[in-house]
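Run: sequence + magnesium ion -> complex structure.
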Amino acid sequence: MQLKDRFNIHDDVAEIIFDENQIQLKVKELASQISQDYKGMPLTLVPILKGATVFLGDLLKSITIPISVDFMMVSSYKNTETNGFVCVEMDLRETAENRNILIVEDIIDTGITINYVYERIKSQNPKSIKICSLLDKPSRRKKNINIDYLGFKIPDKFVVGYGVDFNEVYRNLPYISVLKPEIYEEIQ
Ligand code: IMP
Ligand code: MG
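>> structure
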């Protein structure tokens, strides 16, 4: 059966790593810290599509200061392995010059994607630039990245849910999970 033909994606889950409650609590903590740190400063969130969408939605609802949002879409992944180069599919609508930018990412693995996005935005001379990521997989890091706002550190497992996909599917699982091995194997 094809991934997209499955009726109940919850049946494909082997293990829930962070459930909805744990995620909601953490996102609220991050939003409250961001609201305090950027008080009195105009802030632009730059979510990286598509993985950061669900995280962004919850984060937005809990941030209390005025903010704007400007999206970027980049791709750098094939199946479960990074292909090591980054392609900008959609760029910022406005230059980052003189703006306070907070990049919002779903997961930082090798760091290649976020490093590329960070350097690209930095070259536009923003007033400040920081990184917020829901997940961090430090064991596979190839670039030195400072994550200013982090949800959770995770071991080197391929996770899905809460916006994070496997071959474009499973983003709508409300928790962070690992799929049954046969699901990954079908695609290899
Ligand atoms: P990096 O460039 O290796 O840091 O990869 C970052 C991007 O790869 C993330 O934005 C995700 O889209 C994707 N990615 C990394 N790890 C996973 C995973 O465990 N599951 C799904 N996507 C992942
Ligand atoms: Mg991503």
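>> summary
Helices lie at 20-37, 53-62, 112-122, 181-187. The pocket of magnesium ion (ligand 2) is lined by residues 48, 51, 105-106 (CB under 6 Å).
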